[in-house]
Amino acid sequence: MTSPSTLTDADVADTAELMEQILYQVKRVVVGQDRFLERVMVAMLAGGHLLVEGVPGLAKTLTVKTLADTMRGSFKRIQFTPDLVPADLVGTRIYNQKTGEFSTSLGPVFANLLLADEINRAPAKVQSALLEVMQERQVTIAGETHRVPRPFLVMATQNPIETEGTYPLPEAQVDRFMMKVLVDYPTDDEEFVIVQRVIGERLEASPVASIEQLARLQARSREVYVDPSLIQYAVKLVSATRNPEKFGLRDTRRFITFGASPRATIGLAEGARALAMLRGRSYVLPEDMSDLVPDVLRHRVTLSYEGLSEGLTPDLLVDKIMRAVPAPPRPLEHDRLVA
């Protein structure tokens, strides 16, 4: 059971102020994409990896790159292509002819913030090279274990799977992403501003936070109070993706091949904590969790051939599940304090 929050109002205010500074710097360069930016902030605070999907040209890469510019930490970018090999990501052993010894050359995954650009442009064996580092925060090369810097976040962009020249991500890797965010086209007004900024004076983000500060914010996020009823709500939502008939969705079972894993339940709880903190609270409300449900579940629900033939999408199924599993009432403030 989660213990009551030990965060002070000053802690929450400091966090909100710093995240606002980061957001201000990012929005100097990136136009619109407010929901996407909020999810990026949630992933940063919760220490979870983020998968971003959208057609080319929607500023996915620019957003993550600009975010990295606001942090005084190490940033690496990997452009995934069909000719990559796993050693290009994690590193390899190199033989030195002069000394007759092998040395280890570490790959670009050794960074605080890793941008995996167009991750589904590379085949599965290359994508799978990220499995260990995303879960264990370490890489094994020739039997030797090397830990990556802390904090460590992977933000990956991908094109829709129907796009030419893409490979589907392995299920084991997709599950390691805390959230999958869909990025859509900008509005006409936003596109007008985008063009103005591109043809005008070049703007760049300034560093306003350090990696040490991010680590402290992540530690504070883990102190946000989550009521047991909300944890139970997360458990029910994830369980409904595996056994929908338990929640009155008997006709939905044939459309689902695989449901979400326990990582989804953990992601909902951790993400709701981070979102509550971004919204200036030291405790989670039901809307904090329900707002994140589509992003946490959409990439973890695998449709059956029958579901695909019916024209269903994971988002439609998740919406159906959310209507079948009601959120708990908002916990009263005195109930939270007594707990």
The helical percent reads 40-55%
E-strand count: 13
Q: How does the helix and strand content classify structurally?
A: alpha/beta
Note the gap between the termini.
10 Å
CATH class term of the largest domain: Alpha Beta
Order of helices and strands: HHEHEEHEEEHHEEEHEHEHHEHHEHHH
Our count of domains comes out at 2
> Spans of 5+ residues with little confidence (pLDDT < 50)?
none
CA-based shape: globular
The CATH fourth-level homologous superfamily of the largest domain = P-loop containing nucleotide triphosphate hydrolases
Radius of gyration: 21 Å
Main sheet properties:
5 strands, parallel
Q: Tally the helices: what do you get?
A: 15
CATH architecture of the largest domain: 3-Layer(aba) Sandwich
Which fold name fills CATH's third level, the topology of the largest domain? Rossmann fold
Average pLDDT: 85
Report strand order across the widest sheet.
Answer: 3-6-9-1-10
Percent in strands: 15-25%
